[in-house]
Fold:
Amino acid sequence: MNQLPSIDRQVFLDSLTQYLNANDQGTLGLLLIDVVNLYKTNHSYGYNCGDQTLQHCFTQLQSISRLPDTVFRIGDHLFAFILPELNSPAFIALAFNKISSLLQQDLIIDEQPIDLDFRIGIALNEATEFTAEKTLLIAEASLKQAKTSQHGSFSLDQTESEINKTQLLEKLFAERLKANDFMLYYQPKVNLQTGEIDSAEALLRWEIAEQKFVSPQVAVEIAEKTGQSLALTKWVIHTAIRQLKDWEKQGLQVSVSVNIPANLIQDPELFTLVQDSLAIWGVHRSRLTLEITESAIIEDIKAGFDNLQKLKQFGVDISIDDFGTGYSSLSYFKQIPANELKIDKSFVLNLLNDTQDQEIVKIIIEIAQLFELKLVAEGIENQQTYDCLKNLGCDYGQGFHMSRPLPAEKFYQLLQSKSPA
Structure:
């Protein structure tokens, strides 16, 4: 079998740019193919088997490519397939189906049956409307949506009104970001053993009309699609740390956690952003926690670990959000540079009535204690669940039972009252 191609994102972008420049009148398509379960293959059969699996995927993609320099490996388990000169945008669906059929064929490596699980993201660039970077961003946003879809694909049949609405939201988002016209709400993390509040999670709020908010998830997706993730995260971190400083001047000592988008985990600018923000506002690094979803870490372990380790060594806490939903393997979990685990609310909401959820929560608590990690349970909505988690040994909790996310001034009042709302 041929050698596995190296990762070269820049060569891919250069080739994509050339095809865009030569494609003045036609439609260019881009497919991103992500082998999402490669880590299971690596841990079950070894990394050599994993490499052969990736080489198989690369060879299969090359076998259906009509032109040179159209298939690239741009991530550990991520491939890009350029489709220039499409006569019709609908033809990209044919390519999608062809690739799906190829990769779903039975695969045997070293006498082991390999079950390929992949997702495909799509971007269409008609008449070179976008640059190579913009086209890639659209495909990456599509891939992210595909990973949350049961079908593993992204719908191409948006109506004109939906497209116009999306474009309007993107334009409005850019304007609001430039004007710093977002808000942060703060949801307390309550110490379940004492009932005290000494930290909070900062949550983005985007109000487009009176009492009418855009979902934070939509805002994050727009930021990723339009290449503004770093700018939005910079606003969130600076705003949260500045708020910490204001509370400190008012005599309150609390910590805050902020959510970091998956596509920034391996970005070297993240460390500089955190370092500069703390220095500008004069807040100690120990009072900031960065929340990273478990699935985001698993998606690209090798690339993200170094950056997270650097942040942890700097003195910033790292929290693994949605823990229990990413199919963790302890063989690499023990290396994750984390200080905190957050139990996903899907295990907490039915904790009192579902014995399986109870056992899962117990296991997560044992894992946290084994690795000396602080543990936070999300989704606490009644006193019985609060008491159950407290008795099981969980450290902290969040949920509507204690408090909904609050504007900064109301969170300050809650802290002054010394008791949950």
In short: Residues 229-249 form the longest helix (21 residues). Confidence is low (pLDDT under 50) at residues 150-163. DSSP finds 16 helices and 16 strands in the chain. The two ends are 63 Å apart (CA to CA).
